[in-house]
């Protein structure tokens, strides 16, 4: 099963301050993936990817970007894993959301 690129989506209080902090650690904002004005942006340092989101959700989210999220959904269902938000449609971009046994939110997001 291919999970794709991994990132963590962080719920931040002040996106400008968070952006500055992660830039100090060497992260660079993707110019076409959000902005401070949008209240979200994606940053990368080598292979590490983080999303900064101000006021969009309550908790941090572990995010995977697979090429076939529907196949992952079928695998999870076949293994009796509860899904909080299932995929939609039969093709194209979609996502699913579930929680691990400790309550951490995991999203599989297919562009």
UniProtKB/TrEMBL annotation:
<protein>
    <submittedName>
        <fullName>Glyoxalase</fullName>
    </submittedName>
</protein>
<dbReference type="InterPro" id="IPR004360">
    <property type="entry name" value="Glyas_Fos-R_dOase_dom"/>
</dbReference>
<dbReference type="Pfam" id="PF00903">
    <property type="entry name" value="Glyoxalase"/>
</dbReference>
<feature type="domain" description="Glyoxalase/fosfomycin resistance/dioxygenase">
    <location>
        <begin position="8"/>
        <end position="108"/>
    </location>
</feature>
<dbReference type="InterPro" id="IPR029068">
    <property type="entry name" value="Glyas_Bleomycin-R_OHBP_Dase"/>
</dbReference>
């Amino acid at each position: 099963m291919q999970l794709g690129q991994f990132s963590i989506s962080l719920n931040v209080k002040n996106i400008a301050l968070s952006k500055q902090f992660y830039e100090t650690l060497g992260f660079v904002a993707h110019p076409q993936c959000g902005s401070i004005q949008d209240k979200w942006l994606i940053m990368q340092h080598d292979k590490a990817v983080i999303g900064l989101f101000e006021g969009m959700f309550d908790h941090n989210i572990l995010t995977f970007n697979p090429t076939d999220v529907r196949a992952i959904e079928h695998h999870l269902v076949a293994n009796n894993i509860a899904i909080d938000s299932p995929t939609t449609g039969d093709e194209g971009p979609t996502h699913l959301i579930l929680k691990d046994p400790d309550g951490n939110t995991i999203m599989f997001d297919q562009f």
